[in-house]
Amino acid sequence: MHLQMALEGLALNPALPEGMIRRLIAHRRGPDEAGKRPDLTAELIDEMIAADRPGLLRSLALNDGLPDSARLRLARHPDASVRAGVAMGCDQGASREVFELLLAAPEPTTRAYLAENAAVPVDLRARLATDPSDEVRVALARYWPAAPEHVRRTLLTDLEDEVREAACSAHDPRLPHPVPPPDLIPALLADPVTRAGVIRHLTLDEQTARRLSQDPDADVRVEVAKHPRLPSALHDALSTDPNAWVRLAVFGREDTPGPLRSAIHAQLLAGPHSLGFAGEDGARIERMLVLGELRMLRLPWVCADPLPHVDSPYPCFRVSAASSGQPLPPEVVARLLADDEYDVRSTMARRAPHLVDVATAERIDREFSPSTAKYTPWRPADELTFPAEVLRRFATDPDPRMRCLAPRDPDLPAAIAARLAADPDAEVRHAVAGHRTLPVESLIALLDDTDERTVHAAAASPRLPEARMERLLALAGL
Q1: pLDDT in tens, 340-375
Q2: Percent over 70 (pLDDT), the chain
Q3: Residue 210 burial class via C-beta count within 10 angstroms: exposed 0-12, middle 13-18, buried 19 and up
């Protein structure tokens, strides 16, 4: 039996009696997940702090419902990892005193989490611009692009290259950096670590563009190729740049002539890509990266005016059209839902799920490859609707991925739920473990499942009999 996983699930069980929660807190081997519970009383929080188990306190520090008085106590805790958890978990409800305590923490990690936290009062967060730790200043530069000008000026003139680079470059497109103070632009352009980041803010003249288009740093050439005022004379030169990312930037420009765009696309597909990887394995990696970037390319100018691009020969253009916020005629939606490229079909389905018929929704989800979403459990069915009769049909589907959808029917018949709980595929058993119609005997059986996640889900079910909860605690000696 995966007893530890069962205890971790039990710690989150909303029906767990308070006395049992206390036993989990008091025991040194109790699961840390108890700190994540949304229903913790002031008394239970006191007992957790008194137990002084760092793992439990880290979970508690990240709890959204933690009262400020508890945050204050944890901010004074001698364990650095607990203080760091408070810095991560603080929200707009935290008091100024909590933030001031954390600013004085001796470890850079806690202060770096504060630098990333938008809930920190502006004047306190600004102090981190002169923090003695490079790690903290880099975090501030990266995650506070809209900082007051005096803070940005301090970071843009920092002695450390990594800080200046973070203050000038958009590491995350969702956090674009504003125009730097005008008097700093010449120095930023002269500085190799900030040059690429400042180009987008230049009023680019032809002489400067030509000089920068020959810069040895490919990132600089990419930014030149993206600049809205790129002189047309440089389109051809940059379209044959050895580096694939430069060519890709020209490919995605609105003003790139059709024949030139077609030629670049052919080059990107054929290679060489010259991204700096060596040998045959390097060439394969480069091809994979370029094809992936082409596939993921989204063009704002296409999104703004999608109709001319719904029949583009380039899939990324059609995907951009499908993702547009502009209203599309029903016949265009239908055409994009039937597109030869999966990304186009699935993007259109996500953009207008109310226009997707059940058969198309099923086809799109069946064709989805989980390998394209390695870091998230998302699948198209998360945004598409299936009626109960279809979900129940999925319960006997040969594909276990489709059987996993059956428990999304809230009224799934108990007999079907029980059959899924005995499915040979662990993902299916996990999907049904917390279902409200699952017979109790099937739920209890899942506590002994060979799959850890299934055991966790079963132990977290509020329908688990109290006697079984007690048995799990007894098995663990709690």
Answers
A1: 999 999 999 999 998 999 999 999 999 998 876 666
A2: 98
A3: middle
Q: What is the per-residue pLDDT across 61-85, written as a single tens digit (0 to 9) for each?
A: 999 889 999 999 999 999 999 999 9
For every residue of 366-421, DSSP letters joined together read HH--GGGGTT----GGGTS---HHHHHHHTT-SSHHHHTTGGGSTT--HHHHHHHH
Tokens of 260: 């030139």
The SS3 of residue 189 is helix
Structure tokens at 349: 């389905």
For residue 84, with 0-12 CB atoms within 10 Å meaning exposed, 13-18 middle and 19 or more buried, which class applies?
buried
Give me the helix-helix angle, 68-75 and 80-89, nearest 10°: 150
What mean pLDDT comes out for the span 198-225? 94
Cβ within 8 Å of residue 455, ≥6 positions away: 1, 2, 5, 6, 9, 446, 447, 448, 449
Distance from C-alpha of 298 to C-alpha of 315, rounded to nearest angstrom = 10
Q: Which amino acid is at 297?
A: L
What is the b/e burial string over 412-421, where b = at least 16 CB atoms within 10 angstroms of the residue's CB? beeebbbbbb
Nearest residue to 316 via CA among 302, 326, 304:
302
**Angle formed at CA 298 by CA 259 and CA 235, multiple of 5 degrees:** 35
**CA–CA dist 129, 264 (Å, integer):** 43
pTM above 0.85, yes or no: yes
Residue 405 and residue 435 in contact, taking contact as beta carbons nearer than 8 Å: no
Nearest alpha-carbon partner for 52 in 72, 32, 23: 32
Cα angle, residue 403 at apex, residues 400 and 406 outer, rounded to 5°: 165
